[in-house]
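Entry for the shared binder. Reason: the reviewer on the internal report wants the predicted structure included alongside the sequence.
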Amino acid sequence: MSLTERQLTLATLDRQLLLERRRLDVAEAVRRVCALQAQTPASPYLALWNRVQDFAPGDLDAAFRERRIVKATLMRITLHAVHAEDYAPYHAAMQSSLRATRLYDRRFTATELTPGDADALLPELAGFLARPRTGAEVEREVTGRFGEHARRVWWALRTFAPVHHAPTGGPWSFKQPNAYLASPSAPGSPIPEADAGVQRLLVAYLGAFGPASVRDFARFTLLTHSVITRALHGLGDRVVPVPGPGRTALFDLADAAVPAEDTPAPPRLLPMWDSTLLAHTGAGRIVPEAYRPLVVRRNGDVLPCLLVDGQVAGVWRAVGGGLELTSFHRLGRADWQGLTEEAERLSALLAARDPAVYGRYGHWWTKGFAGVESTVVKV
C-alpha cells in the first residue's frame, strides 16, 4: 500500500521529534535528528526547544563547551551542529564536495596556487588550531607562507579542513568574531573513508527525514547522484524502496515505521533555517508550494515559521519583548490557542537569553508579507 503525502509529512515530523517532545540528552537529540542547521547561533537552541521536553539552554551551552556537540561546515557548505562522534564520518562524506567548491572557485584559482599548496598547510594548521584562534590570527599565521593570498587560502581551508567553530560566549554560545579549533582525533584512529561516510550520513538522514528520494538527499547535502547511488548499493538491504504518492522512487530504512494518517501534529514555532524546511526537494514536506516564496527569501534566508497541523502556516518574529505571529491564511480558534501557548513559552526562554532574536532579519517584515492574521504574544 502506497504512503500518502500526509504520512510522509508525519514520518518526517515524527523522526524530527516534532510530533512529541522527548526527554533526551541534548547530544542524543542532535544525533536523533541527524544535524541541526547552525547558520545563526540561536537556531540550534530553538530547534531543540521545539524537540526536547524541558529543554534547558544551559545544557546545550555545556555540550558545545565540552565538545559533545560540535559546530562545523558540512552539508550544503553550511554550518551545522552535530554529535561529536558523527563529525568525522559526516566530514569524510562531504570533504570532496567542500574541497571542490573552494579550491576550484575563481577566488582561490586567481591566486595561481594549486590545491596541493593548500593541502600542504593542513598539518601545520591542525597544530596551530590546537587552541581557539580567530580568523584574523589564522590569516596572520598563513601570511608567512602565502603572503597576500593568505585570506583566500584561509577562506578555502576553513570550509574543507577538519575544523570546528569554538564557543566564544554570548546568549547562544557563538558570537563574532568566529573562533576555530582543529577537530580532535584519537592517536592512531583511522580516517573514515568517503564512501563509508556517505553511507553513515545517508542512514542518519533517512532515520531523521525519511522516507526520501535520491534527489531529496542530494538537496540536503549537495552530493552528486552518482555518489548517493553508490552509497545506496553499498547499504544493501538496510535500505529498501517504499511506495509513495508519486512516481519518484522513495527509500527508507528497512526497520523504519511511519505514523498513521490520522496522527495529530501539534503547533510549533520553528527557528530560522530549521532542517525540516531544507531536507527535501521543492517546497519540502511541510511547506505549501504557495508559501515557499514567503518563507524562503530570494537571498536564501529561511524565516522562522509557524507550524499548524504539520504544515507551515505563517511566520513569527521577536517584537517589543514578545513574539509577533503572522498567518498566511485564516486559522481557527484552537489553532491560535495552541500557537499562543507555544509563543508564551518561547517568549519566556528568549526573555532570559535574547529577547531580540533574529532582529537583523526584521527587514523582511518591513518589506511586507501576504499575511492574513497577526497577533503579538507576550509573557
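Summary line for the report: The first strand starts at residue 36 and ends at 37.
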